[in-house]
TrEMBL record:
Residues 67-344 form the Methyltransferase domain. InterPro entries: Methyltranfer_dom (IPR025714), METTL25 (IPR052220), SAM-dependent_MTases_sf (IPR029063). It comes from Rissa tridactyla (Black-legged kittiwake). This is MET25 protein. It holds the Pfam family Methyltransf_32. Signal peptide: none annotated.
């Protein structure tokens, strides 16, 4: 497009918006989808798989909400394909939260997953879920084996010939699947490593191994029984976990740590014998750009890092750790909460030694680029949801805007480290909202009568339509600000010498999950 195409959006003298239609067209033009800077998910999966087909198995919609189920299903399939392409079995889930992605990667794809979250509450919750899960899991396995045998006998009695044909086909399929898994476990990492560089052609894997032990076959049979799996998952959350809590503050408790290490070693030995290597370890640790993963994960090996909606600077730090650590062969990171990003040039005080969330790439650093909090807040808005009729919460935004006027004029406060949070949904009226908010901000509401609060409400009520229009303009602009943040991260990866391929990939339906773009990269493989 010509440089002058959008020159008439704003008045040259007053800098005010004068052409809303052109403004919307300009915003659309500078979005990820229109700029052509993203890689289609289908193309990436095809390149990673080569001739191999995707797997089907456990469904997540029985134990997650619709949004989370959609995210976990799509992202876990991609992560599994990347792991296979790179010949790795270990995954590190940064900001793992309740462990939905981690546990699904473990159960469905037989990956060894370490979920790292900064919250002790999350780790403790995972420990309790693990206790319950182990209690029910043995019973589930026994029932599953019994049902498999029962179903086979029934089919054999009802339709002997057809049953024999079906059973043979299923058995061959299971043998191929388990032999492929077993083959991956037995060969070395060097054998599984893809060629140097990401050429867009997936590696081919042999699946002709014929010697499969009975335990592996039984486990594969069970994985086909999605209904049986869902039976236990309906009882418990999806954290098929084995807990190993590791935070830097725990180093003094050596006895407990040694117990945990022995416990983990014992579990690993058992898993090796039974071929059940799908373990999920929730860890408690705060991740920064300087984090040494080997201090947190004692058996760190070649692995990949993932992050499903890593908040603020955590997404940027995930990419920095990936580029710095040779053990990490790939990364798949979906960020969120752009408003929490730290910016190097937002304040005049420049601290060269500090690590910032934005900008990451040298190009924007050289230009001293700054978004500002208002722009980052706008980047969090969901244009696609608004487009399908999920309108903005105008009333709550109006409440918040009038509250800010009250705080500034009555209390003289222009900036605070405290937050109002979700007070609107818990308030019965505007007066109730203001008083609850003032308490959260630790401001004395006794000097503010109800009549004064309502006077402010009435004064600005006629401007609610203006506020709605202003916020709609912010929504339209949101994709432009988001693409700037995403391209900054992608450009940072492009600047690194050890990256074979990197790209932006749209993983999710933006109506279900507005933060739908993943930053993905694969490291160069060393050739022997």
């Amino acid at each position: 497009t010509d440089d002058d195409t959008f020159s008439n959006v704003f008045c040259e003298n007053s800098k005010k918006l004068i052409d809303v239609h052109l403004f919307a067209l300009a915003a659309q033009y500078y979005s990820v989808s229109n700029l052509g800077v993203s890689t289609p998910l289908e193309d990436l999966l095809e390149a990673l798989r080569g001739d191999n087909q995707g797997t089907t198995g456990i469904k997540t919609d029985e134990f997650m909400n619709n949004k989370k189920s959609h995210e976990v299903q799509v992202m876990s399939e991609l992560v599994d394909n990347i792991a296979k392409y790179c010949g790795i079995k270990q995954v590190i889930d940064i900001g793992s939260g309740k462990g939905y992605l981690s546990s699904f990667l473990s159960m469905q794809y037989n990956l060894k997953v370490y979920g790292i979250d900064s919250s002790d509450t999350t780790t403790n919750g995972a420990h309790e879920r693990n206790r319950k899960l182990k209690k029910h899991w043995r019973a589930y396995q026994s029932r599953a084996r019994a049902n498999v045998e029962s179903q086979r006998l029934e089919k054999a009695n009802d339709r002997p010939v057809q049953s024999e044909i079906n059973c043979k086909a299923i058995t061959e399929k299971l043998l191929n699947k388990t032999s492929s898994l077993q083959h991956q476990d037995q060969v070395t990492t060097q054998d599984l490593a893809p060629p140097c560089g990401f050429t867009g052609i997936g590696t081919s894997e042999s699946s002709k191994q014929t010697e499969v032990d009975l335990a592996s076959r039984t486990q594969s049979d069970e994985s086909e029984l999605s209904e049986e799996v869902l039976a236990i998952l309906n009882v418990l959350p999806a954290d098929a976990v084995e807990v190993f809590s590791s935070s830097r503050s725990d180093y003094g408790e050596l006895c407990e740590e040694e117990k945990e290490q022995r416990k983990m070693a014992s579990l690993k030995a058992k898993a090796s014998k039974s071929r059940e290597s799908n373990l999920y370890f929730p860890l408690t640790s705060c991740i920064t750009a300087e984090t040494e993963l080997s201090d947190i994960i004692r058996d760190l090996e070649d692995c990949m890092m993932v992050g499903l909606h890593t908040c603020g600077d955590l997404a940027a730090n995930t990419l920095r750790i990936f580029t710095a650590k040779p053990e990490i062969k790939a990364v798949c990171s979906v960020g969120c909460c752009y408003h929490l990003l730290s910016e190097q040039f937002e304040n005049q005080e420049d601290s060269p030694e500090e690590v910032w969330g934005f900008p990451m790439c040298q190009y924007l650093k050289d230009k001293g680029w700054c978004c500002g909090r208002n722009a980052r807040m706008s980047a969090c808005l969901a244009l696609e949801r608004v487009a399908v009729g999920q309108m903005l919460p105008t009333e709550s935004l109006f409440y918040r805007a009038v509250l800010q006027v009250i705080i500034e004029e009555i209390y003289g406060v222009t900036k605070s480290d405290r937050h109002v949070g979700k007070t609107f949904s818990k308030s019965s009226s505007f007066i109730d909202y203001v008083r609850k908010s003032l308490k959260k901000l630790e401001l004395d509401d006794s000097k503010l009568p109800d009549s004064c609060i309502m006077d402010y409400y009435e004064k600005y009520k006629h401007r609610m339509n203006e506020l709605e229009a202003f916020n709609m303009l912010k929504v339209v602009l949101a994709p432009c600000i988001e693409v700037l943040i995403l391209l900054d991260r992608l450009c940072y990866l492009k600047e690194q010498d050890n990256i074979a391929w990197s790209g932006l990939v749209k993983l999710f339906d933006p109506v279900k999950s507005p933060r739908c773009y993943a930053v993905i990269a694969l490291k160069k493989q060393s050739c022997s």
